[in-house]
Please model this.
Amino acid sequence: MWTGTSREPTYFNGVQKERVFENAFLEYGSMVSMTAPTKRKLFFLTDPIEDWPRDWADYKRNYQATFTAELLYPMVSDYEVMPWPERIYTRPYKLANSDSSSLIPKYYSTQMQVMINALNAMPLSSNKVSGTGGIAVLMSNSLMFQRFPTHNGFEDPQFSNFYGQTLPLLKRGVPVMTVHMENLKYPATLGKTKILVMSYSNMKPDGPEVHRYIADWVRKGGVLVYCGRDDDPYQSVMEWWDTKGNSFTAPSRHLFKELGIDASPGKQRYTVGKGAVYILRQNPKEYVMDAGGDAPYLAAIKQAWEKDANAGALQFRNVLYLERGPYDIVAVLDENADSKPYTVRGPVIDLFDPQLPVLQQKEIQPGEQALLYDCRRVAANNTPRVLAGAARVYDEKTNTHAYSFIAKSPGNTQNSMRVRLPAKPLSVSTTDSKGNPSRTRSRPGTKARRQNG
Model:
């Protein structure tokens, strides 16, 4: 998953712009959807530098956004932590607000290495991201088949028929999932889904069995929300729904037949078995390309969630929050009716700050993300350990009066560490790889900072 793809501009509330965190969250979610029911092992990747030439401050900001997004999937704990290290450490890029270039700044290399070590320690977790879970959007490989800019008067600017189904929810703190049509044959695919949103404004089904799976799920109590005018030119291509004995004018007509409903004009809700179906006759792109256009969509989702799924109140917030072991992962969403910052109580170590400050509270503003180490969730024993650092730790040795280890990290970078000890140390010392005292800034009871040679 690349920062470059995540910063592709999207529409929301009538505004087209980059929404890197939200885009990354949906991209990582599509990877989980693609593999989860198959039980295949999934590795996440994010890159501290993207392909397009920009400046170091830009890389840092967007790396934090994509990094936070990947951590909000607690069912994945395998990562490619260092793609193309030669590009990261040996190529100069611009400094912010300057025409001059430099190798990676010390502040960024330190922070990045702290983050990578956090990935190495990141545990799997059964915890769930905050917010209303259980709403999913159906997607398919055929999403890419309608990507012509304009065809017979039809266009889908910036994939807005997909983002029209997802961003109105995600921007309000609902951790919306994606479900791959190709995986509907696996029973586990819809196992955690209470509401399934779908549209054929931006994709088409590859076979009639897709509709049988969906209809069976609805009859057993699922709630389906179908969005679309079914007026794009791809509805009438020569495909299975209008050839070989079939004469449906749109694939949704076959879906509605499987559900046993007559999609009457002006009627929105239908009861099907133990479940329900909503038909919204708007193309999803209208929910995001027009300011305030998502109101009818959100109203239908709210009714479906609270009345048909009987799942309690649909909660809209401006934050996504997750605990994974000692780590707090936080993303505060902007473009939200709630513009208040989110506060995490400490003591916590701020892992996005190369100084690794220990804070009594951390306030995260809308549009920002945070990765924090909660010192209260450290194992309740007196064993010394490195809690966070910009170097790999080897050969740890502990006795009654001392704790030592070897720290290794790339040359010409600066190490920064937080070390937990059972008592305030009488002295702290560092040496280089040959055993000679090294340049260091440290005070007993605080962290040590060291220039790596």
User: Anything to note?
Assistant: DSSP finds ten helices and 23 strands in the chain. Residues 113 and 202 are 40 Å apart (CA to CA). The mean pLDDT is 93. The longest strand covers residues 342-350.
